[in-house]
Amino acid sequence: MPASLAAPSLPSPDSPLDWLAIDPDALDLAPILSAYRQDGFALIPGVASQAALTALTERAHAIMTGAVDHRPFFFQHDAATGRYEDAPLGEGWVGPSPAYRKIEKLERDPVFLRWTENALFARLARTLVGPDIALYRAILMTKPARTERGPGGTLLPWHQDAGALWGLDRSPRVQLWTALDDAPRDAGCMVFAKGTHLEGLASALGGIVPPSVHGLHPAALDPVVVPAKAGDVVLLDNLVWHASALNATSHPRRAFSVCFMDPATRCTRKRGAPRTFPRVFAPVSAPSAAHTR
Ligand SMILES: O=C(O)CCC(=O)C(=O)O
Asked: N or C: which end of the chain has fewer CB within 10 A?
């Protein structure tokens, strides 16, 4: 690992719960799982501690400004127009900027990996996926503050996180989105078309829901807006239609999203070698599980 990727002052491994503001074992999962199954999403308030938020936001800043080596990560910058269709493809890192809409491969970063492996995520993943869990992705989704020169990120249209675009033999169904900053309604918080996960894929390709489909759908015409506070987590089904608007505030809106899945999931991409996916969370009986808390 390059020296510049060394983790700054992480809580010591013998106080691993410092990053959680709640007791992960005591949290009543029943209402959360019920909302997730029925609506496709559930807000879990106040999960990350201030220590976690400080570490994660400082690390996000360091990654976006190039204070740590950018090469392990994949970047996509915002377009100046704020339009999703205009976001550059294949360009990657374009130098220090607060306006990267998406940064992938954050499981390679010790700070974001530490958060990915927190004890609440482990409990939810084991409940929803099974004893053995693979990570599909760990990404930052950010929207910079609106300025005279920038519209406040990229408007993310209704989409599903599954389908042929994902190159998998089955759809993952578990994502956990952590607000690193307050994400009020006007900062481009998450918006959901409730219950749409129950209808499967809107197109075989997946990703963006075609306007001809969402334009007439009652759940998209009456969306559920989910403002979040820094530290809140949203559990969502990959198939639920979700979207987020531009950030109209003078503060950045950064969030970190992870997707967990069954390790039996196979990559179906034909170009190049098939992707493999890292395991997270050792089975409960293994002694090494302790470090995941
Ligand atoms: O943060 C956002 O605006 C969208 C996040 C998202 O689409 C996801 O986590 O799957």
From this structure: N
pLDDT recorded at residue 281: 86
Residue 4 resides in a domain = no
> Residue 58 falls within a domain, yes or no?
yes
Give the nearest ligand 1 atom to 238 CA.
10
- Shortest-distance Cα residue to atom 8 of ligand 1: 257
Domain range holding 233?
Answer: 16-292
Ligand 1: distance of its center to the CA of 234 in Å? 10
Q: Cα of 9 to ligand 1 centre, how many Å?
A: 28
Domain contains 3: no
Does some domain include residue 85? yes
Q: Say what the pTM is.
A: 0.92
Total domain count, the chain? 1
Least trusted range by pLDDT, from 84-93, 106-115, 121-130, 282-291? 282-291
Residue 82 has pLDDT above 80, yes or no: yes
Residue type, 43: L
CATH at 284? 2.60.120.620
* Rounded distance from Cα 236 to ligand 1 centre (Å): 10
Read off the pLDDT of residues 204-217 as tens digits, 9 standing for 90 and up: 999 999 999 999 99
Q: Measuring CA to CA, which residue among 146, 156, 154 is closest to residue 252?
A: 146
φ, ψ of residue 30 to 5 degrees: the values are: -55, -50
Q: Which atom of ligand 1 is nearest to the CA of 159?
A: 7
